[in-house]
What does this fold into?
Amino acid sequence: MKNESLKGKIAFVVGVGDDQGYGWAIAHTLASEGARIIFGTWTPIMKIFQMSWDGGKFDESRRLPDGSLMQVEKVYSIDAMYDTPDSVPEDVKNNKRYLGSTNYTISEVASKIEADYGKIDILVHSLANGPEVKKPLLETSRDGYLKAISSSSYSFVSLVKYFGPLINKGGSILNLTYLASNRVVPGYGGGMSSAKAALESDTKTLAFEAGRAWQIRVNSISAGPLASRAAKAIGFIEKMINYSHVNAPLQKNIEADEIGNAAAFLLSPKASAITGVVLFVDNGLHAMATSTDSPTLS
Ligand SMILES: NC(=O)c1ccc[n+]([C@@H]2O[C@H](COP(=O)([O-])OP(=O)(O)OC[C@H]3O[C@@H](n4cnc5c(N)ncnc54)[C@H](O)[C@@H]3O)[C@@H](O)[C@H]2O)c1
It folds into this structure.
């Protein structure tokens, strides 16, 4: 029997730029459970995403279990670094990747979605960016560190602030975090580990504030390694996938759909009493204190 537990729910998934990442996988699972999907795509890559979509590049990945193709009702251009039009610096406005784009700040996208849909039910924050991610923390500049926090953590605070009032009572919000928030993962630099720590802390505080203000839930998934476009840019994702495969309790690769399934649960009424949680979906790697492939153990 078809699972339609999210039938008619409207889900805004922010941070989809192709079919390789967690945002896409979550949207795909939500769609297969009956949700109506709208995307938020980073302004500088909006055109290439649209061209790829229109050219059928994602058609195979759009296929749902019932054979139909995932429909995306609208794709909103968004830059989650900016809250209001006056916060966009001149050099960004005039950058050729932004020229011709309008209304891409978080508050403006919220207004557009309110005009188009009234209320929504689900918000997913699946985005991160740290311009100095390849640098160790000791070599990270103040500017690089603050940019990592701004685009990877404050973006979540701002999305909850502007979208909270648009989310139906009982609705649900989710972000994606990573184990490097509170365990050392050498190579995950540029302040990105700090950004994920802030994101997890904010998940709890926002669960309280958004729960009290709008009776909605706020949770986080700490995902295992996936060779998404963003992860490949860090430069050692294949090693992290291999490390997890060798050392995690479950010796298998993480499939993006496994994060999609956990997300669909947290975002559904079945999780109606769950808020403020960071749920590990990582084959159990977080539970390990020793590397089973360490030469010291042999
Ligand atoms: N891939 C992994 O191994 C892994 C592990 C744990 C957590 N995560 C988290 O999952 C989330 C999704 O990342 P992914 O790995 O699936 O890669 P991805 O490349 O599919 O997604 C990242 C998205 O963020 C968008 N983005 C960057 N800056 C933005 C901005 N200012 N405004 C709007 N969008 C912006 C990018 O365009 C991209 O589409 C991130 O929060 C990431 O940290 C990933």
User: Anything to note?
Assistant: Strands lie at 10-14, 36-42, 72-78, 120-125, 167-177, 217-223, 278-281. The mean pLDDT is 97.
